[in-house]
Amino acid sequence: MALRNIVVQGEEILTKRAKEVKEINEHVCMILDDMLETMRAENGIGIAAPQVGVLRRMFIVELEDQVYELINPEIIETSGSQCEYEGCLSVPGLIGRVERPQYVKIAGQNRQGQRVEYEGTELLAVAFCHEYEHLDGILYIDKATDICETEEEETEE
Ligand code: CO
């Protein structure tokens, strides 16, 4: 495993639509391993492939000791709404509030190519939506309100 550089806001890759992962091979698994290591080193709770310079549809969320790895994810159900502060490893030093669903059901593939489905509420729902939007070239900061600077180490996605 290796740490990768996090791409920060202003770089074009973060604004592009990521491409489908056609074949889940060793290379893809290696990128996922690196993403997890990089996310943990940066105290993040989520990371999407474009954030390490890979324009492919996959992301990782880690919350409460559970790792959610999703390849070619699709959000299949949402309900309710919440508006909480969130941050992003690609937008260091800032947090802002974004309206998100309170509940999200997301499906995708795992490393073995099997279909997996996860449900999330509250912060997990925020993280799924935030990471999913990275795959469509959307940064939370583009739609956030109450953007403010953060001095402390926050959990970032
Ligand atoms: Co982010």
Under the CATH scheme, the architecture is Alpha-Beta Complex
Q: What spatial form do the alpha-carbon principal axes imply?
A: globular
Poorly predicted ranges: none
Mean pLDDT: 96
CATH topology category name: Peptide Deformylase
Strand arrangement, major sheet: 1-2-3-6-7
What does this structure look like?
With 157 residues, the chain is an alpha+beta fold. It has a single domain, classed as Peptide deformylase (Peptide Deformylase, Alpha-Beta Complex), CATH 3.90.45.10. The chain contains 2 helices and 8 strands, in the order αβββββββαβ. The protein has a 5-stranded antiparallel sheet, sandwiched between helices. Strands 4-5-8 form a 3-stranded antiparallel sheet. A hairpin with a 2-residue loop joins strand 2 and strand 3. It is globular, with a radius of gyration of 14 Å. The two termini are 20 Å apart. The mean pLDDT is 96. The site of cobalt (II) ion (CO) has 6 residues, from helix 2. Cobalt (II) ion binds next to helix 2.
